[in-house]
């Protein structure tokens, strides 16, 4: 029988490895306070952005929301006031318009937490998709985010020097958003993961922002993806780093299982189409 002393190195190995990761991980974890700070949320008139604005207002943040349609912004402000008793500032601008974004950000005042949550999604099979639609998505989702960060960053940096508190920029992305025009196959593949409520996504996003996480997955598939694709991303939690190091191979295996499932669905879909 093996001596307990021989088991010691095996038992100690994970502890030593975790200690090495605790030394390695950068940047160091920080808390991003929300209370009393200026949280600026784009796409704050609807869905996840509205839920985030409501949550941040309820936690005592000064909230500004930006979207294109003024009437929807006013409705959002009324809904947030009704739910929390707090008034949020509203700004009407198209994120594609760099000047309009700069003016809105200037009028809102220095930002502590910028949430680039605006997003458009016009799904279509590539052969049928109009390139103007692709350009529109790139202009809103990508260039709009650059416009915002460029407008807000200088005063955010100055403000952190004055307050001594860390600031944060969060960018919302999507695995597969819901859309009435989504192609059949996208629906089938996206159907393998359950949808989430805007309030639940907002809660996870705000918790992730407050604990300064680089990637904030909202569900199991998102967590899997974030571990499988962690690559060169920064990681401030040594425990998550441990999960990434130990789980990467297994997550790749799980990814291949998902692919196998999706390919079976695609093959079934094609054979059904041929049979019609
Ligand atoms: N819903 C999903 O299934 C899903 C899944 C995963 C991730 N996401 C991501 O989460 C974010 C929010 O999604 P959501 O479904 O909550 O969105 P949503 O309800 O469709 O709301 C989009 C918001 O963005 C604003 N917006 C759109 N284009 C804009 C522009 N050019 N300039 C300024 N504001 C603009 C809209 O207001 P106006 O139209 O008035 O401008 C609205 O406030 C998006 O980034 C999306 O990709 C969504």
TrEMBL record:
<dbReference type="GO" id="GO:0006666">
    <property type="term" value="P:3-keto-sphinganine metabolic process"/>
</dbReference>
<keyword id="KW-0812">Transmembrane</keyword>
<dbReference type="InterPro" id="IPR057326">
    <property type="entry name" value="KR_dom"/>
</dbReference>
<protein>
    <recommendedName>
        <fullName>Ketoreductase domain-containing protein</fullName>
    </recommendedName>
</protein>
<keyword id="KW-1133">Transmembrane helix</keyword>
<dbReference type="GO" id="GO:0030148">
    <property type="term" value="P:sphingolipid biosynthetic process"/>
</dbReference>
<dbReference type="InterPro" id="IPR036291">
    <property type="entry name" value="NAD(P)-bd_dom_sf"/>
</dbReference>
<dbReference type="GO" id="GO:0005789">
    <property type="term" value="C:endoplasmic reticulum membrane"/>
</dbReference>
<feature type="transmembrane region" description="Helical">
    <location>
        <begin position="6"/>
        <end position="25"/>
    </location>
</feature>
<dbReference type="Pfam" id="PF00106">
    <property type="entry name" value="adh_short"/>
</dbReference>
<dbReference type="InterPro" id="IPR002347">
    <property type="entry name" value="SDR_fam"/>
</dbReference>
<dbReference type="GO" id="GO:0047560">
    <property type="term" value="F:3-dehydrosphinganine reductase activity"/>
</dbReference>
<feature type="domain" description="Ketoreductase">
    <location>
        <begin position="37"/>
        <end position="199"/>
    </location>
</feature>
<keyword id="KW-0472">Membrane</keyword>
